Amino acid sequence: MSDYVTLFEMGPRDGLQNEKTLISTPAKIELIDRLSDCGFTKIEATSFVSPKWVPQMADATEVLAGITRKPGVKYTALTPNLKGYERAVAAKADEVAIFGSASEGFSQANINCSIEESLARFAPLVDRARTEGLPVRGYVSCVVRCPYDGDTNPAKVAEVIAQLLEMGCYEVSLGDTIGAGTPETIRAMLAASLKVAPASRLAGHYHDTGDKAIANIEASLDLGLRTFDTAIGGLGGCPYAPGAKGNVSTIAVAERLHALGFDTGLDMEKCRAAQAFITELKEGAQ
Ligand code: HMG
Ligand code: MG
Q1: pTM value?
Q2: Which domains, and CATH codes, for the chain?
Q3: Following DSSP, what letter does each residue of 179-248 receive, concatenated?
């Protein structure tokens, strides 16, 4: 099995979407430019969602226009609907992502529709993206627990994964949105998920609220997953999931992976400099 692990950097999107202090557009651009030098192949740069829902991402177009694109790095963006997709294409996102949920309560709170309605809304978006040659990633939120509905049935996660893959997503990222997972619940969720998708098409997206994200990554590595979403400095959370701490920290995960003998391709010194940049900026803004 491969000893290379891809860390998909989430800081500029999943991190900054939840910052209470305003991070300026030039600072976001500088953060992404610094991350581009760290060795990531994928950086989620922003999201083309409604600015009324998430004002922190209102400058998505300006952010993508301002960055210096590094060859070999894909700059991705969330797109909840066709309007978001069209904005992302106009801004030259390299890849887009649709984001659904395994729980009805979170689906309503996050994107204002049921799971079924969300999948119906995503289908024409994925069709357009496939016609236009843009890869689409899928997310499933609340894969172990929902802040509104309680524990999630692993079978429901598998059902949504199957629909996202069937629609044309190249990979599905499994979100422990409120960081409630433990190695046991993550294993149970993955056991169901692996019945509908090979490990190579699944990614772990574990928030660190319960301080178990690294243990959950290790459990997922055992089951064959080799892609994980992390955020520099452990930034962020989710505005529609009360209690969601940041994504697991990129540096903490990379260090653990390196200790376990995995390669991430990351330049740790540059990662530390990028982390110091955003941490100082946040502290200065408070
Ligand atoms: P809605 O209010 O039901 O939609 O929101 P609407 O179609 O009625 O539109 C309302 C207004 O927003 C309209 O403007 C639209 O034009 C505008 P008005 O006519 O009132 O002036 N609008 C848009 N503007 C810009 N870009 C767009 C867009 N769409 C509509 N794409 C909607 C539905 C999905 C738009 C809204 O609920 C939304 O934007 N939700 C996004 C919430 C979000 O970004 N959450 C965080 C990301 S998900 C996450 O963090 C989880 C993840 O990390 C994995 C995990 O951890 O689990 C991925
Ligand atoms: Mg998230």
Answers
A1: 0.97
A2: 6-284 (3.20.20.70)
A3: S---HHHHHHHHHHHTTTS-GGGEEEEEB-TTS-HHHHHHHHHHTT--EEEEBGGG----TTSTT--PBP
Name the amino acid, one letter, at 190.
L
Cβ of 49 less than 6 Å from ligand 1 = yes
ipTM of the complex: 0.98
Q: Is 276 strand, coil or helix? A: helix
**Strand, coil or helix: what is 175?**
strand
Residue 176 alpha carbon, nearest atom of ligand 1: 57
Give residue-wise pLDDT tens across range 116-134: 999 999 999 999 999 999 9
Q: Is 48 close to ligand 1, i.e. is its CB under 6 Å away? A: yes
State whether residue 113 is helix, strand or coil.
coil
- Output the CA–CA distances (angstroms, integers) from residue 66 to 137, 170, 219, 236, in the order listed: 24, 28, 38, 22
